[in-house]
Amino acid sequence: MLLTLSTTHSPATDLGYLLHKSPFRPQSFELAFGQAHVFYPEASEERTTAALLLEVDPVALVRNRRGLAGEGGALEQYVNDRPYVASSFMSVALARVFRSAMSGASKERPELAEQSLPLVARLSVLPCRGGEAFLRRLFEPLGYGVTATRHALDETVPEWGGSRYYTVTLEARTRLSDLLTHLYVLIPVLDDDKHYWVGDEEVEKLLRHGEGWLAAHPERELITRRYLRHQKSLAREALERLAGDEAPEPEERARVHNDEEATLESRLSLNEQRLQAVVGVLKECGAARVVDLGCGEGKLLKALLKERQFSEILGMDVSVRSLEIARERLDLDRMSEMQRRRVNLLHGSLMYRDKRLAGFEAATVIEVVEHLDPPRLAAFERVLFECARPNVVVLTTPNAEYNTRFESLPAGTFRHRDHRFEWTRAEFEAWARKQCERFGYSVRFLPVGPVDGEVGAPTQMAVFSR
Ligand code: SAH
Fold first, then answer.
1. Per-residue pLDDT tens digits for 382-416
2. Which residue ranges does the record assign to the Methyltransferase type domain (predicted)?
3. Using a 6 Å cutoff on CB, does residue 397 contact ligand 1?
4. Closest Cα partner for 77 from 90, 58, 92?
């Protein structure tokens, strides 16, 4: 398996300083699974190419996997594609052999390590699950020109068609450390396999190597899932951290708490009344495109889908687990094509400006604000009213005054342990009016649930319009 790196930066031989490997002295490295060799097929001022040749020893692989014999059948342990293709072995070799270059350090050419250089990487055999289209979706958003030649499954039997192996050239003006990091992360993603056990530390590794590019990559979700070998809980954690925010409390615990809150309010079937009230307001204002911010497990989305008025429905939440449940609840994967076009789920955080939230006629924020601590609430205000800026916002939150009417709720506690506050009617109204002044909205307030003469209704709702 061969990887070459070329530059036409002048003088091109500086590549040797950046890689910390002399163009004039071949070197070999012992790795647990074989050997890596570094040498330069060409080294002139105009153009220099470094080659990393990886020799994976299939017998050493089997030997190092004592106790795992039999996995995949005895023959497959010895006869497989691993020695011949770029895979996670290549990533390990890159990190070992070009460690300083990958971290962007260079003793002799520190300023060059910081610069974008004309670079070309060529991988002799790269397995691409998802084909050339997926290869392009990975590298093109990072600014690479991609050339790929597909290999036949068997050259002597052309009717068998193409294999999943490609010879790939990637070309860009970029920093060498960025190129190496992209290869390090994306080679195993394309291969969709890893030779070692993937645990918690892989999340850290992915986030570290993904810094500065992964969060904004359009394929970040698939990259993360594949990199972490489809281990859902790890992928969830990584995606949440990439969104710059973590689910407000660990997910399993959150579910128990949501159930506690639901039990507390169920005697009033408050949830049902809340949904009806929200849908009622949205129908009245005539909105067709609605975004539900902090949609959780998708209860409102489901109610909106039943109404034909709503032609574009987007649910957004920071919790990947909740979105997975929403996906199942809505039966998204089995929906008719027409229904499917109406609804979408989006993973993101309300702490960050997000272009994908703009252009909606109405936004709903149902039982979400009380989960946000003060700095988060402040960020959310701008994201909603200044950036997403829908015509109508329907927002609900508990009315703290009503809590004395829940017999089982000890005095002075919140309805849900993750609530950061619960507002009285006066507090909520003062907050809402302040947002109107700042962002040019007007607001009206509606009670949801049975109104108590003294303490008001259990849920309070604000309808903002501009
Ligand atoms: N609106 C839903 C869920 C309410 S629970 C319903 O009425 O059933 C609060 C939701 O807000 C949770 O799903 C939580 O994950 C989400 N949330 C909390 N902080 C968030 C943030 N910063 N960005 C996006 N969603 C957030």
1. 999 999 999 999 999 999 999 988 888 888 888 88
2. 291-391
3. no
4. 58
